[in-house]
């Protein structure tokens, strides 16, 4: 399957803006949880396109949905609606707390819409002084200027000039800090129900409950950024369903389209009413192709057997990582939920997450990091058991080259 006249990796350095540093190999074909590069080398995929390819590569249902819709109609704009968008929105409202849906193209756009809606709702309902947004240290919400500022990692937002104001960051899982900062001027609290880019950090049940109660007390909206945690990733269709609390606005993207770009926010009729005609919009949001593929993905993800399978695979991953840890004494803990897992490196391996990532690639394993000290695993939700075993064996091999 070696590709003739292929574009080489060096072309990236010639023509691409240097905000990425991609691996040396170029994948050209994927099937299930396996990928092949230009030289026909095979890789196990534990990355899933950063928690995107939730049904693996080239799933028949995804290919069928894209092909069928591609032969019907691709784009209409929101001057009119389309059947796939209506079907998908209806299904999302049936599966969640939401009554209304707005479609965008990405998680960043979905979060931008969520933040704008929260501000608009608060100003319309309570007046112009209610504008503060509380978010959390090490949070991540996207790369637009608004969302990257709300995200709690300053190295992503510094250096672009004056930032959007009225944004306060507090430590995650710190109830006292939240109590000290939230007030009647707070319009919204934005949080990930499991921090992803910040190191795979779960909220305590007490913290999640406190956030909901304090938002209610101060008439602030609770925004759940479920871009990475949503669509089956934690073993619930959305992570809020496993926490026992309900947000006011929920953003979703990544695995919503199982690899096709699409994002959305979901909310109640009352809150949605503040996005009147002309207040917000998107040229490509809700396009027929994206919605058709996402509908096919949601139909599979939302099945009880799919969600139960995520929890079964989590057990396999944890057992395999523990076996590696017994051999190399490399992890301080394995945290996360479902198939959003992080193996935190201990002091002896501090700062070496990327070294392991590169070694894994050489051993035939695609994986991720979440900062310099955490290995991140976000594979397909339906990855076969034998691929989990083989991938962990390749991780073992990679680590052995670094000892």
Structure report:
The protein is α/β, with parallel strands linked by helices and 403 residues long. The protein is 39% helix and 17% strand. The chain contains 15 helices and 15 strands. The protein has helices at residues 10-15, 48-51, 60-70, 83-95, 107-126, 145-150, 154-157, 175-181, 205-217, 240-243, 269-272, 288-301, 304-328, 353-362, 385-400; strands at 27-31, 34-37, 42-45, 100-104, 132-136, 167-170, 186-191, 221-225, 249-252, 263-267, 331-337, 340-345, 365-366, 368-369, 374-377. The strands form three sheets. Strands 4-10-9-8-7-5-6 form a seven-stranded mixed beta sheet, sandwiched between helices. A four-stranded mixed beta sheet has the order 1-2-3-13. Strands 11-12-15-14 form a four-stranded antiparallel beta sheet. The radius of gyration is 21 Å and the shape is globular. The relative contact order is 0.16.
């Amino acid at each position: 399957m070696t590709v003739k006249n292929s574009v080489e990796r060096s072309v990236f350095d010639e023509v691409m803006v240097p905000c990425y540093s991609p691996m040396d190999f170029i994948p050209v074909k994927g099937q299930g949880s396996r990928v092949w590069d230009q030289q026909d080398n095979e890789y196990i995929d534990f990355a899933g396109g950063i928690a995107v390819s939730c049904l693996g590569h080239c799933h028949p249902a995804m290919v069928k949905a894209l092909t069928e819709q591609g032969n019907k109609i691709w784009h209409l704009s929101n001057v009119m609606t389309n059947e796939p968008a209506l079907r998908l929105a209806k299904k999302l409202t049936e599966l969640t707390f939401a009554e209304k849906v707005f479609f965008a193209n990405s998680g960043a756009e979905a979060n931008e819409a969520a933040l704008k809606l929260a501000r608009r709702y608060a100003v319309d309902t309570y007046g112009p002084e209610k504008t503060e947004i509380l978010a959390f240290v090490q949070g991540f919400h996207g790369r637009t200027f608004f969302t990257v500022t709300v995200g709690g990692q300053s190295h992503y937002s510094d250096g672009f000039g004056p930032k959007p104001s009225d944004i306060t960051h507090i430590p995650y899982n710190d109830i006292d800090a939240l109590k000290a900062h939230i007030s009647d001027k707070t319009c919204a609290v934005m949080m990930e129900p499991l921090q992803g880019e910040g190191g795979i950090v779960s909220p305590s049940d007490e913290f999640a409950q406190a956030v909901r109660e304090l938002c209610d007390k101060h008439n602030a909206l609770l925004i759940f950024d479920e871009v990475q945690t949503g669509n089956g990733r934690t073993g619930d269709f959305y992570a809020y369903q496993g926490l026992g609390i309900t947000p006011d606005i929920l953003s979703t993207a990544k695995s919503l389209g199982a690899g096709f770009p699409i994002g959305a926010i979901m909310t109640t009729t009352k809150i949605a009413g503040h996005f009147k005609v002309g207040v917000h919009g998107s040229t490509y949001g809700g396009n027929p192709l994206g919605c058709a593929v996402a509908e096919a993905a949601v139909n599979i993800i939302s099945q009880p057997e799919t969600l139960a399978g995520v929890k079964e695979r989590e057990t396999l991953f944890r057992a395999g990582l523990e076996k590696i840890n017994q051999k190399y004494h490399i992890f301080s803990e394995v945290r996360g939920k479902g198939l959003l897992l992080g193996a935190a490196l201990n002091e002896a391996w501090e700062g070496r997450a990327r070294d392991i990532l590169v070694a894994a690639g050489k051993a035939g394993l695609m994986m991720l990091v979440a900062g310099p000290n955490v290995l991140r695993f976000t594979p397909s939700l339906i990855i076969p058991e034998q691929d989990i075993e083989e991938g962990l064996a390749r991780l073992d091999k990679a680590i052995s080259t670094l000892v």
